Amino acid sequence: MTAIDNVNLDIYDNEVFGLLGPNGAGKTTLIHILATLIKPTAGSASVNGYDIVKESSKVRSSIGIVFQAPSSDDMLTGYENLKLHSLLYAIPIHVREKRINDVLELVGLTDRKNHQVKKYSGGMRRRLEIARGLLHKPKVMFLDEPTLGLDPNSREIMWKYIDRLVKDEKVTLILTTHYMEEADFLCNRIGIIDKGKIIALDSPSRLKESLGGEIIKIELKNKEPMKTLVESILKPHDFVHKVEVNDEENVVIVYVDNASRNLPTILKAIDNNVKSVDFRSPTLNDVFLKYTGRHIMAQQEDHAEGGFMERYAQYENK
Amino acid sequence: MLREVLWKDMLNMKINNNFIEIELGKLYAIWLREFKVFLREKSRIVASTFTPLLWLFVLGAGFGTIATNPSAISGTGQIASGGGVGPGIDYQKFIFPGIVSMSIIFSSVFFGSYIIWDRKFDFLKSVMVAPVSRTTIFVGKTFGGMTTSLMQAAILLVVGLFLGIHYTPFSIVLIVVIILFLSFALTSLGLAIGSYMESLEGFQLIVSFVVFPLYFLSGALFPLNNLPPWLSILTALDPATYAVDALRNTMVGITGKNPFVVDIGILLGYVIVLGTIGMLSFRRMKAV
Known about the structure:
The complex is a heterodimer of chains A (318) and B (288). Chain A has helices at 27-34, 56-62, 78-88, 93-106, 122-134, 152-169, 180-186, 204-209, 223-234, 259-270, 284-292, 308-317; strands at 16-20, 46-47, 50-51, 63-66, 140-144, 172-177, 189-194, 197-202, 214-220, 240-246, 251-256, 274-280. Chain A is α/β, with parallel strands linked by helices. Chain A has two domains: 16-207, P-loop containing nucleotide triphosphate hydrolases (Rossmann fold); 212-281, Alpha-Beta Plaits (2-Layer Sandwich), CATH 3.30.70. Chain A has a six-stranded mixed β-sheet with strand order 4-5-6-1-7-8, with helices on both faces. In chain A, strand 10 and strand 11 (251-256) form a beta hairpin. The radius of gyration of chain A is 24 Å and the shape is elongated. The two termini of chain A are 23 Å apart. Chain B has 288 residues and is an all-alpha fold. Chain B has one domain. The longest helix of chain B is centred in the N-terminal third of the chain and has 39 residues, at 2-40.
């Protein structure tokens, strides 16, 4: 099976790059390849100028990574986990303590540093992972689904920390997500990935603009007389980009410029056949829909949050 | 000119020292993690101390009546003809070195195969993505296994005092060496097996097909003289056999099957072979 198929990608210094795609699209595999955990079967890649196959040790020294599921040791304290990794990354002894304290401060865990990780909440665990990834001042930081399984509140806190680390630490950030808002909020550029292929690549705003304006969704009262008519009535207006007619649901979707001003014109044209109407700005989901014909929704929520025993229970259930 | 060369050499040496220091730091980090986790998992310590004591006292006392007085089982004299466990040695004392070995077998193999959990819960991935060689991780792990085995054995050694086992400073050194050899070999074996296993279901297989055979075939509970040939061959293949034999020699003064030096030599052979297999398996293990 091919998890990653002919991906050709340049990621620039100090940008926040998002890999957006549904579960199983190949995001994690791509990250694992770049982080030297999996050897690619074909092709080449370099991270921070080092070849991922030939210079894997140098690549490892220049990256930090936050895995999808927290990987710190439950039995150790937050501080001890960081100490362990500071030794593994050979951080010089005279800066070690300062660096540990700095990253703890950055993710807001200073007051919990001497607590065992098993007593941390899901959000705190993720933040500890980020701190660990940053310890050795990596040039590139990978975040694999950094907010998966977090409640909305923890997710927003997490975004705040990620945003801050981009400003404070000057790293290139590569994150994967299947949450639209997350990609939209955090990333300078987004690669939409599906079935191992990058199908679109641009900044979030330009990706959305590429759809052309805003989206008006009109539900019709009765299908037959109007369905085909609507298209011919609306098409001639120059503010209308595209009209999509959904046969099954009695719904017409119109892509327009300046929806708030042009909505009355449209409603007038369709006259009294309108049951309900709804308009909104396009989201990345619409972009995804455009390229794949499918919605990106998470087929199945993973609950990576939790301690050893929770994850063990989850494992038992599988 | 010469001075220049010397100077360069010294610079190189400094770099080398630094390199060694860094590698030792990584090794220490991995070892320290194992040690701390061991100390904090109190239930594991209690359970792994209690089981050997159960064997020692219940089985020791129960079987002791047969082993020292063979007529206890309907006078067949089978055991008597085998010479029993040795003249004037009570059964509990006889199996004590075996029970110490049992504790090492269990803790070492379990420790090694615990790598499956480390992998399942991604801890190992976070270590493997760091610039640390597989060999360093492997050695750090085995040192961790040796430390935990030694600490558990130490608890039993203290219990031995109450059974009338006499230690001298020299015998303690020998005992520690034997324990470290056996636990290094078996932790390597556990790591090798664990590195091939992808799911936790396999853990039960390790218990049935590795841990218990290693224990039962080691002669921990019976003397190795006069065994049927098939059993003799199997016991000879078991590395723990030589540890039990050597410990029995050191602790209770029974010269068993082999002279002490031969036992230690063979044990060292197993250390090298299993250590190499473990390291190679570890190096080819998939990271994710």
